[in-house]
């Protein structure tokens, strides 16, 4: 089970007195994998979540993902892997807009992609590095929907102002497809037997989705550690990624 902050909803033209809040995902994710230590491995993930927010329309999300990877190099302190990933998402509503009642998060009603990832990891006593890249092709679709999707808030607006408005306006259906690219780099540097400095970046680009970010963190070990650092780097997980 999970409860995670996904995004902050925006409301460019909300009326006075109407509050808006962050969107949370509540549900479950099942993960499966098969790896007997040979050259190849597979994994799969299936999750369903209910997305709620204050003065944001309710939504539901289903994600199915699977992947295959091949070990090109597999040593104690170095590894190279290539693979293929498949992904399919479904949202009950597309709430990616920033008008009143929308959520401001990427939520096409149907989204499918296939990608080819490559990763390289290396470590020694003081350093651990991870570099990942991928190229993918994706297709997304959303049907026509209400520009202001929360009927409860709409009634408040009409009651407060009592004038003609575009409260019943509809958005047009949309379809998109194209190539996407991702580059991710992570590092950790030993400062002492109990302190490690870490950081990295995640750059993604496609026509409709580009959630790039960077991070820097300090890790404290309750027990002193004098061996090599972890391979691959396992960074702290942002709260927005919890599920």
Textual characterization of the structure:
The protein has one helix at 151-161; strands at residues 2-8, 22-34, 40-53, 56-74, 78-91, 110-123, 127-142, 145-146, 170-171, 174-190, 195-205, 213-220. It is mainly beta. Mean pLDDT is 85; it is low at 1-19. Helices cover 5% and strands 56% of the residues. It has one domain: Porin (Beta Barrel). It starts with a strand and ends in a 23-residue tail after the last strand. The chain is elongated.
State the gist of this model.
With 243 residues, this protein is mainly beta.
Q: What value does the average pLDDT take?
A: 85
The CATH architecture is Beta Barrel
Uncertain ranges: 1-19
Q: Helical segment tally? A: 1
Counting helices, strands and paired strands, the structural category is mainly beta
Spatially, the strands of the biggest sheet line up as: 1-2-3-4-5-6-7-10-11-12
Helix content: under 10%
Strand coverage percent: over 45%
Count of the domains: 1
Shape: elongated
Q: Which H/E pattern describes the elements?
A: EEEEEEEEHEEEE
Query: Radius of gyration, rounded?
Result: 22 Å
Largest sheet: 10 strands, antiparallel
Instruction: List the quaternary state of the chains.
Output: single chain
